[in-house]
């Protein structure tokens, strides 16, 4: 009888709301593992190409295995928004648009920091506005509007995660700032802040995993939770780069 109770207890510790094959308390560890290839690729000199490849992998994993109740249309919209964000981060189109607009305020900000980061922030701001409007319209168009707040929040969070992921494209630039003359103290301080915030998100994923309530047809939603801290942390990289460059 005692052995059976021990077995039941062991099973209970492994089970989680997202159906993960491990206890939710190990989720932060797996979240860190999702980030490691990003750091290794950058440190190994893979540059933006390597970072882009791993970012796309994480985005696809989240889009397929999202624990959020957003449905296929919502995930497609979120992934398209993330793809546009990647284009903004990886190309100079938005930078050229800002610098050629004749807006002195935008030009002065770009001269103080990095033009690509400024352009990315501007583009992401526009994407977030569009995402919120589209998500609201989708919820209003539903015949049955039950769980309206949950549906809207899940739809927005799906998009925010995939849009923020493109911020990792600036990691090579950020790590090269000391060679460009950035203040070492500012670099260390910004790196510590980014690390602490990522740790905070990773620790929070423990509760996300345990309390997740994914759709019954969701495909391995625990994978989506594991990669979510890395995706959300992408926005921290350009912020850290801007702060370190103006310090």
Describe the structure.
The chain crosses the membrane at residues 31-64, 76-98, 118-137, 149-171, 186-210, 222-246. Keywords: Membrane, Transmembrane, Transmembrane helix. The structure is a single chain. This protein has one domain (31-246). The chain has helices at residues 2-14, 27-43, 47-65, 71-90, 93-99, 104-112, 115-140, 148-164, 171-175, 184-211, 221-233, 236-246. The chain starts with a helix and ends with a helix. It is mainly α. The chain is globular.
Give the helix/strand class: mainly alpha
- Globally, the shape reads globular
Radius of gyration: 20 Å
Integer average pLDDT:
83
Specify the helix fraction band: over 70%
Number of helices: 12
Proportion of beta-strand residues: under 5%
Number of domain units:
1
- Give a count of the beta strands, DSSP E runs of length 2 or more: 0
Q: Write the H/E string, N to C.
A: HHHHHHHHHHHH
The low-pLDDT segments are 1-15, 102-113
Cα(first) to Cα(last) distance is: 65 Å
* Main sheet overview: none
